Amino acid sequence: MDPQLKRGEVVANREVSPGIFLLEVRGRFVASPGQFYMLRAWELDPPLSRPMSVFALEERKIAFLYEVRGRGTRLLSRLSPGDELLLLGPLGRGWASPDRPLALVAGGTGIAPIHFAAQLYGGDAFLGFRGKPYLVESFVDWCREVHVASETGEGGLKGVVTEIFRPEGYRTCFACGPEGMLRELHRICRGADVPLFVSVEERMACGLGACLGCTVLTSRGPRKVCVDGPVFPVEELWGDG
Are 50 and 121 in contact (CB under 8 A)? Predict the structure, then answer.
């Protein structure tokens, strides 16, 4: 799927948790789980578009989950139904169809690409949050089981998601979240011989591989997250250790 620049109309842009928004855009879009779009709802300032993983995709609508972190995402959070924005995508490499049973593990806003994977592939979801969980109900239609942990104990078991995930019985694990969570999953899945494929986040400028700003070192040499990822076999990132 070659990336295209399209204009979309905002259907909804609701705050699902303090500082975290679910943006729904009307239009015909395509994507695979783990891919992303570059979003822009302004003219010149800020100069860069913002990369957003696809949360859900329907025939005439696409959705993105994002956290307000800076000027760009703050401008996105001010969009209202009927407003327009530009979307460039789909971009990057996502998750291929997995061997099943499939485990889906996410932390915080890492639930975005994991939700899209659940929509297409099903599986069992393990979701972790700092505080009160959000959008858990949207996993129920796609997943056989949904397990929730939060650091405060609200809406789930108290703790972090790696404490409630057991890899035994799964043939594949997809994950997205903070690096510390992904490294711990690497240890857990390696011990159970379960292949783990992770979606990683890096700062991006172009999303097309031209600026090299999102380059990471891997076992295969320097790789650009925007075109070679954001999904990688975990061993490429952190080896067997």
Answer: no
Beta bridge partners of 3: none
Q: Are strands 145-150 and 157-158 parallel, antiparallel or unpaired?
A: parallel
Domain coverage including residue 135: 102-199
Count structural domains, the chain.
Answer: 2
- 16, 111 contact by CB (below 8 A): no
36 occurs within a structural domain: yes
Q: Name the CA dihedral angle for 157, 140, 123, 52, rounded to a multiple of 10 degrees.
A: -90
Q: Does 86 share its domain with 130?
A: no
Facing residues of 53 across strands? 36
- pLDDT at 45 > cutoff 90: no
Q: What does the radius of gyration of the chain's CA atoms come to, in whole angstroms?
A: 17
Is the pLDDT at 156 greater than 80? The verdict is: yes
Residue 143 has pLDDT above 60, yes or no: yes
pTM metric for this prediction:
0.94
Q: How many CB atoms lie within 10 A of CB 90?
A: 21
Q: What angle do CA 35, 14, 177 make, to 5 degrees?
A: 40
CA distance 67 to 12: 16
Task: State the average pLDDT over residues 103-126.
Answer: 97
